[in-house]
Specification:
2 copies of one chain form a homodimer. Chain A is elongated and about 90 Å long. The mean pLDDT of chain A is 88. In chain A, helix 5 runs antiparallel to helix 6 and helix 6 runs antiparallel to helix 12. The longest helix of chain A has 21 residues. The first copy, chain A, is an alpha+beta fold and 337 residues long. The first copy, chain A, has 12 helices and 10 strands. In chain A, the strands form 3 sheets. The first copy, chain A, has a 5-stranded antiparallel beta sheet, with helices on both faces. The first copy, chain A, has a 3-stranded antiparallel beta sheet with strand order 4-5-6. In chain A, strands 1-2 form a two-stranded antiparallel sheet. Chain A binds a DNA duplex (30 and 30 nucleotides) through helix 2 and helix 3.
Chain lengths: 337, 337
Amino acid sequence: MLDERKLAVLRAVVEDFVNTNEPVGSRALADRHRLGVSPATIRNDMVALEEDGYITQPHTSAGRVPTDKGYRLFVDRLSSVKPLSTAERRAIESFLTGAVDLDEIVARTVRLLAQLTRQVAIVQYPSLTRSSVQHVELVPLGGQRVMMVVITNTGRVEQRVIDGLGEVNETAVNDLRAMLNRAIAGRHLGDVPDAVEDLPPQVPPEHRQMAVAVLSVLLESLVERHEEKIVLAGTANLAAVDFAASLRDVLEALEENMVLIRLLGEAKDPSMLTVRIGAENFHEGLRSTSIVSADYGVGNQSLAKIGVVGPTRMDYPGTMGAVRAVARYVGQILAGQ
Amino acid sequence: MLDERKLAVLRAVVEDFVNTNEPVGSRALADRHRLGVSPATIRNDMVALEEDGYITQPHTSAGRVPTDKGYRLFVDRLSSVKPLSTAERRAIESFLTGAVDLDEIVARTVRLLAQLTRQVAIVQYPSLTRSSVQHVELVPLGGQRVMMVVITNTGRVEQRVIDGLGEVNETAVNDLRAMLNRAIAGRHLGDVPDAVEDLPPQVPPEHRQMAVAVLSVLLESLVERHEEKIVLAGTANLAAVDFAASLRDVLEALEENMVLIRLLGEAKDPSMLTVRIGAENFHEGLRSTSIVSADYGVGNQSLAKIGVVGPTRMDYPGTMGAVRAVARYVGQILAGQ
DNA sequence: TCCTGGCACTCCGTGGTCCTCAGTGCTAAT
DNA sequence: ATTAGCACTGAGGACCACGGAGTGCCAGGA
């Protein structure tokens, strides 16, 4: 059905269209790529490709444009991830080193990725679930309130004020803190529920109410808010593109954190590059965009995702290379913390 | 020079242009507004207004459009802040109540403001400088590291890891923590430098190095990062507007936090509404936008600013009303925390 | 003195026509 | 199977005419 040459034609169509943003015709193709055949032959191949739905014509006497299906084939079989230039690698390193805390690492990463790809970059904060507890701090705030601060090994800090505990006794708080840390320091957050299960009976009855309240907030804060935090950069790069959908729809989608989280979350193969093209995205406003995403983490433990959103007409090999490289570097930086 | 009627004409021009986004002519003005004079008279007034630079013509046979100077006069003398409808007030309340922590208050506020004004909203986190210390926590992390967590009365939490302290002695940390809290709990952050000045001599010599290191990081974290944090929402609303400058430039400016901070910071009259129109903004990309900003705070203590960015052609009275109302509500919410 | 109706003028935007041109599909020849 | 040749198609640009909105100016009236 699709012989070697037809595939070469498809590849050429994708590459040219990405470069020029104009429908590409058989003559231009024969000129720019050494396909070794005449425009007429290319035309015949194009008819076949169009029948199979890989390319399409905006109107009768125009050149061809890849369809989502065409891009999909291109990404899967016709291209390879483009490694970064050494200049780009150096840029990454100088950009990411010197960040003092997690917030800054994330902020720099997202800006770096936006700059490298000239598109919109998304970085998700390291998931709490997969990291482990470094320390739990309980601070009596006066009145009936206690502030709980959970510090993870990825440098993330989660804080919550717990109210309505009845009388807060300072030594009771100290005891509870010590007990908590003994039970869960060093554990993966996923293991925390099991680890604290049998704590309440060990607390003297007069403070048990407080202990239960603190534990329930602790557990709640681990499950509830774990993967919510996301950062964007490079939205200005969208202004240069003309979308089939209105720019407004795209910007609106990007402001919905829940949408982005789902987008990143839908990776097929963890720890691999994932590419979702055009209508493969469930969200209306993102029907004419593609998303390239990857996991990052420490060792082979995935902590969260990063990704890039751009027009379906994007430089897939280059974008994939940038996303992969940045994901790796961030992992290294986090490991070094 | 500018009699009552000319001012009325200017007001009418601004209002109509904001509504229709089309140059407004003398006939349309005479029809829509009860000015009590004929189009010819209005034309004469328009000539005067144009000579004084308040309005201008895109081309010879077109209607008039307000200039920045025209908007300025309109805002200063010809309009009043428009109070919100009761429906809008109710929306604010239901939107802001139920937020559990500072992050959520800020996030909800910025989205609320974007929604009310249908423009881009900016909210600055409450300044550390003007709030006071609730508690300082020091947590030994093992090795030579200590984590410092400063909790303020506005619910903000500032954390820092301090490294390279030499041997970290647990009791020394406990002593230092107690001493620190005695010295600065309840104080305004601005007073902290004075309050800790005479602490080092009170620390036993063998732990003095650690104490000095902790103090210097504490002071540094108060001055350095105090007003950096800013949140945006509603950029999608920009897509509907056509700017003189390219949309890209505007989006780029909005991504530069430092620019936004300066913009908000340049309020003339603290605790009042500030409006900066078009070229009054120092930043290139924002020459065709206006910014309406206001302080918010608890009592008469200003903590930070909120603002709205939109085209110079914006509904000033409505926007000002929304900004003022939201600023007040946020203040109340923060006070209740 | 100020306002107004009338009038000639200007220029934008629209719609129609024509033409060019890139690109196609088809057919016949190699 | 490939290619050259050719007729056909539709988008887009140039050109033009025209209607309409809006102006500036002037002369007459309150």
